[in-house]
Amino acid sequence: MSDQSSVGKPVSRLEGRLKVTGAAKYAAEYDAPNLLYGYVINSTITKGKITSIDTSAATAVEGVVAVFSHENRPELPWLDIKYADMDAPPGTVFKPLYDNEIKYNGQPIALLVANDFETARYASTLVRFEYEEEFFETCLDNNLEKGRDAKKGIATLLKPPPPAPTGNFEKAFENSAVKHTAEYLHSTEHHNPMELFATTTVYEGNGKLTIFDKTQGTINNQLYVANAFGLSYKNVRVIAPFVGGTFGSGLRPQHQLFLCVMAALELKRNVRVTLDRKQMFTFGHRPQTYQKLRFSTDENGSITAMNHLAIGETSQFEDYAESVVTWSHKLYPAANTLLEYKLAPLDLPSPLDMRAPGGCTAMHAIECMMDELSYKLKMDPLELRLRNYSEIDPSTGKSFTSKELKQCYLKAAERFGWKDRNPEPGSMTRGNKLVGYGMATGIWDAYQFPSRIEAIITKEGKLIINNAVTDIGTGTFTVMTQVAADALGLPLEDVTFNYGDSQKPFSMFQGGSAIAASTASAIIIAARALKKKLLKKAKAISNSPLKAAAEDDVMFKNGTIRLKKDPMSVVSFQEIVASNNGRPVRTVNMGMPHAFKLRKYTKATHSAAFVEVEVDKELKTIAVTRAVSAVAAGKILNPKTARSQITGSMVWGISKALHEETILDEKLGKYINTNLAEYHIPVHADVNELDVIFADEPDELINEAGVKGVGEIGLVAMPAAIANAIFHATGKRINKLPVHFDELL
Amino acid sequence: MNNFDYQQAASIADGIQLVSTNNKAAFVAGGTNLIDLWKYRLMEPELLVDLNQVKEHHSIEEKEDGSVRLGAFVSNADTAYHPIIEKRYPLLSKAILAGASAQIRNMASNGGNLLQRTRCYYFYDPNVPCNKRTPGSGCSAIDGYNRIHAILGASDNCIAVFPSDMCVALAALDAVVNTSGTDGERSIPFSEFHRLPGDMPEQDNNLRHGEIITSIDLPEKGFSGNYSYLKLRDRHSYAFALVSVATGLELSGDIITDARIALGGLAHKPWRINEAELFLKGKQANAESFAGAAEILLQGAKGFKYNSFKIELAKRAIIRNGLMALHPEQQLPGARPSA
Amino acid sequence: MPIVKLNINQQTYELDVLPWVSLLDAIRERLLLTGTKKGCDHGQCGACTVICDDKRILSCMTLAVMKNGAAITTIEGIAEGDELHPLQKAFIEHDAFQCGYCTPGQICSAIGLLTEGKAKTREEVKELMSGNLCRCGANANIIDAIMEVKEGGSREQF
């Protein structure tokens, strides 16, 4: 079977042709008869109340159909729980148009619906609001003292609060030979996928809706819509076949979905609502987080004590928490730890998971701290990591299901040429440039969610796999087709993977780098059940050559079942379905994480990033000239798409370290660079050589597929590696991201 | 993004007639700034007069006196890549190519480039005070986040900067802006075209309502032997300048016989100081000389909370760009600092 | 309403559009050619790039009425029937996209770049493609794909 196996091969994206010809349709691109267009109106104040609304000028415009606000919205459920999606943090979920209260600048306060896009956009500017403004606080820096413990809720399952202290941090820190204290900060970031958030709702009548939506979770949004509007689940279908990037922003239903559905139900019409780019800054974001670290080592570099305090920003109505301070002790053994995480509520929208939430925030601080310690110890930074290398999870004492971080360090260092580094800051030059080498470690969870797979063999002998999961650009469609093909011994072209549809069997939202493991494992389980069923049916055929065959005696190849010992003894899938009275052979199975078996283990992916920067000697402009990332993430299902996940997140690392930031004006209480000209993400000219190594990391414990996920691990180590390289080039530590080159002047 | 009427001007005269008789009429050529501003509700024209059908001013021509005339309706890209410009005014070519993106340069007209409005965050938000957008409403930038703002020529009313790269080179080259309006034709020296804010920040330049830029004249001297455009910004391309420098030198051996330096990203007009250029005449083309010129150019510079770095950065940029002008063949794409 | 004649992908369309309809919205919402993408609507991302009278432009930054009589090629008109354009093939082969949303703009822009013929080195290609953002970070693969088509180039040319 190895001759045709697909997993592990660099298969090009199966939807590639649709994407390069413009045929791939996104949420705002589904046509519907007599479509209405909604345009969202946002609050221009930060906090207070709407005292009056004047829609007369707007409704006088020809083509305007309705203006929805809290004054005339339909009766809506008042229970918060009805609005809570699967990813809702503890607190009171935001309910669009619920009342006259303004909780943050840019809050959606009305929806104007018109016959065409331009009329909706224009008339939306004519609605007049009077406000009563209240005092607000939006600046984390001014409100650190408000930091308090995060409330607990369902979300706490994935993001546990920090573990209890171990040993005696203060005493150990005090008595250690080498110690360092530093503060770290990063700016607010917005996901800014290239596709604008959009929903097209097709009103099918009788309380039935077909919704084309930009989301990472079709079922999450189906449940949300049904709950919030009191519809029956089976009458709400959410479809998201192509999703133009999300990076976490699609984990929760966004307000354009709510508003679009509301308008469709009220007007009994087909409606589309698309946010504009400025409005893309009016919901979730990566929260600004203040971090203070105190680490100490003995004279040999063994870490003795670690204190990691993080204070993140959240909204006044939900406690969005991240795992920030849990990572250091999963990497480095230290007898004395004090890990603290606080939230400071501000008058801003709730933050939302953004690629490697918490992890890339934390590892920036932890790995810059390690770099600082290496200089105090006069020890190579890589050597310091190896000195503190732990084969087990020091925070729990558990074994890892697998951990090939050492291999990552060594392979990446070799490929990068780390041995050529002169540790003296500013010592390496190239023409007008200072050259800096920096490295850092990455770690990320290896999650797995429940996933339900329907697997069908058709009368043509082909395989159909059905699952509600999305493909947000990760390659899920391609990779899952590969997994399914191999599991049934079929060529890729005989497999159809139907996805991105809430009518298909259950999938969680696509996040946390969990979907490859979740869906692939479920496919493997479903395939096993399907094979068993096929064999049983094959044996039941009269004169079946497989009559006496046990499971171990047969192989599945090219749409047939054959005896291993006598490959001429064959029953084809088509014969099986024919003998089944032409009815397709079907199974539905659930893949679940092996919670009980794995309770003794820690599951994690690891990485090591090595970065070269050039910093202009006088002008201090910075370029990441090359970077090598080595990643240990279990089995790599498709090295082409997996590599793209890593290089893509390396670009995110460059962006976080050097470019992107949402600037908050604390006096105005609002973000001010809400566009792609001033919210800088890297352009082609900023991206140079990126190299990826996948460590060999077999993992038979973790799940059926041996997969850990690669969506986030490529980002985690990069920001610190870049900051450390800048220090090596210049001798300056800049602990606030993004680094502005002028800070090096 | 209000609704508006649209008319195509058949000629310059037609255009002047259409716009000058309507206070709320505006011209459109490339559209790359105007349509952006209209979508952000920063311009709400009642009538848009499209100049793209006008037959004249679509070419670049060498004139008998040695100067070169750039038609106002030639695109930025066609200007930058024009053989005459590449050969005689490579500084202009480099500056144009350091701005915007290939697509925008294909659309944007030369006339329109001069009329770009500032990228100040607060100017772009119709819901916050801004004297340039809403006279008398106040300036949010002076006490706000002013990293990208002016250190030269600002006033208490406005600290916005003018964003063009092309204009920095045009200023260095002593270009002349030719216009046509109800009062006939005018030729405006480049240094008198853009305005510092003073107490009228809403007025970006000295063009009158209904007046059209028809062409831009480049005097004969193009500094094609020793020139450099340097642009410093928060990413390597497709970002506005924090500091930019256009330098043109004439040398006799290693002695400077003539020099031009214009700065971008620092004021609401390309910044030139004649004394700095005079200072360089007769001096050796070295870092020390350029440092002296830099001191003169930055005299009176005043930083705000987030942009004081621009003073030192501009000085260093002037020095580096002077040295880069000695080796124009080594310039990098995107007007980056030399390798 | 003004009648605007647009030749798109060698097909003539007559459209009744009001003056304030952008070329992008005319293409996407009126003609339902949704391959051309709206990423920012302000000339800041390049997703709406089309080829207009042989030049790459941003369709969000111009009005449909201003392009009366223009010949426009969108992503839907790049392939010859079933035969993909070499850039389209190279994009698939090099995995030069993930979510695919910036892809039509990248490809149209790259076609413009190759037609212009101004970029010689990889660095110049990167500079002249920098008006097209990619949030998935497929940048290096995009440039690889363009370099391959440009001159059978590869990363080594860098």
List its salient traits.
heterotrimer; A: 745 residues; alpha+beta; Aldehyde Oxidoreductase, domain 3; Aldehyde Oxidoreductase, domain 4; seven-stranded mixed beta sheet; five-stranded mixed beta sheet; 16 helices; 31 strands; B: 339 residues; Uridine Diphospho-n-acetylenolpyruvylglucosamine Reductase, domain 2; Enolase-like, domain 1; three-stranded parallel beta sheet; 11 helices; 11 strands; globular
Brief rundown of the structure:
The complex is a heterotrimer of chains A (745), B (339) and C (158). Chain A is α+β, with helices and mostly antiparallel strands and 745 residues long.
What does this structure look like?
The complex is a heterotrimer of chains A (745), B (339) and C (158). Chain A is of the alpha+beta class. Helices cover 24% and strands 25% of the residues of chain A. In chain A, strands 3-5-1-11-8-9-10 form a 7-stranded mixed beta sheet, sandwiched between helices. In chain A, strands 14-13-12-7-31 form a 5-stranded mixed beta sheet, with helices on both faces. In chain A, strand 21 and strand 22 form a beta hairpin. With 339 residues, chain B is α+β, with helices and mostly antiparallel strands. Helices cover 26% and strands 19% of the residues of chain B. Chain B is built from 11 helices and 11 strands. In chain B, the strands form 3 sheets. Chain B has a 5-stranded antiparallel beta sheet with strand order 4-5-8-6-7. The model of chain B has no long low-confidence stretch (mean pLDDT 98). Chain C is α+β, with helices and mostly antiparallel strands and 158 residues long. Chain C folds into 2 domains: 3-77, Roll (Ubiquitin-like (UB roll)), CATH 3.10.20; 86-157, Orthogonal Bundle (DNA polymerase, domain 1), CATH 1.10.150. Helix content of chain C is 32%, strand content 15%. Chain C has helices at 23-30, 86-93, 103-116, 122-128, 139-151; strands at 3-8, 11-16, 49-52, 55-58, 71-73. A 5-stranded mixed beta sheet of chain C has the order 2-1-5-3-4, with helices on both faces. In chain C, helix 2 packs across helix 5. Chain C is globular. Mean pLDDT of chain C is 95; it is low at 153-158. Chains in contact: A-B, A-C, B-C. At the A-C interface, helix 1, helix 3 and helix 14 of A face helix 1, helix 2, helix 3, helix 4 and helix 5 of C.
